[in-house]
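Q: Here's a chain of 359 amino acids. Please give me its 3D structure as tokens.
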Amino acid sequence: MKNKPHTPVGFNCGLEMKNRFMLAPMTNTQSHEDGVLSDDEYHWLTMRAKGGFGLTMTCASHVQKIGKGFPGQLGIFSDDHIEGHQRLVNGIKAYDSLAVIQLHHAGMRSPYEVIKEKSVCPSDSEKHYARALSLDEVYQLRDDFIAAAVRAQKAGYDGVEVHGAHGYILTQFLSSKINKRNDEYGGPLENRARILFEIVDGIRKACGLKFLLGVRLSPERFGMQLQDIKTITQQLVDLHNIDFLDISLWDVFKYPEDDMYQNKSLLEHFTEIDFKTVKWTVAGKINSAQDVHKVLDANVDFVSIGRSAILHHDFPKQVINNSNFVPTALPVSESYLKREGLGNDFISYMKRWDGFLKE
């Protein structure tokens, strides 16, 4: 086996991750409404670093106030947030885990009840009560992603991940179904991907070559086309000086929804890409030690763990010590999740997940 769970991962920027486990960026709704870090969020994340994750990533953290995607979201759009992030970074790094923040803007997926105004989108969307961004606002969005990365570096983070997945604003630009612009940010794929590439290049220029830089993409749903995402993935590798790609597949073992591409699994579609020296990870139903080994055996560099990280703060240690480890059976009790470091707001949020919590 090429990639063993306990072996380190070296990135182009010079940083090393001590093992093959990344904590997936997960919505948890437990910070303060102004975006300031809460004790609950601090506890949740630092407990995962203590549990052995080689890279601990925050939840999606919004780069503009209007880009807030859920209540209790951790923010990075203001210098007022830096002090909380410094505390979080110190707590994560104390356990020899890389501290990485995910930069996010929900776009048309910002709920009216959360932001109290019309959300923004590349194009008008009546369905989502969203208005089109002006060209100047597109430039501002790009600059605010870059400014958030600079803020994160100032707070001490090892790096950032740009959230270009799951139907949020950068996905909305990438989607030919959603993006109907007729300027340089709309039309052919080259234009629709322009803002993503400008953000990535801008962060690299502002934060330097030793700052860990990753991008998250998802190849399906929200108007995404698998071939478009494969093309963008290869371009990011070839032209844009990133350290890692985070491909969110929803289920790493599934086949594409598009009939045209069902000759191989979604994972196989990405293993055929030439990642060169860029490292890559996948997310989606990697629940057991056996799943981890299967993914690493497919030449994926490291795994991104969500559900099993909620159930076991020390999931990496469990898998490294037991190649047959299986997470605790669902549903679990609220008291169980409290012992695993989830605050009350996060536990309430988990009630949305079918069959996760005991009635």
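Q: Can you summarize the key feature?
A: The longest strand covers residues 55-62.
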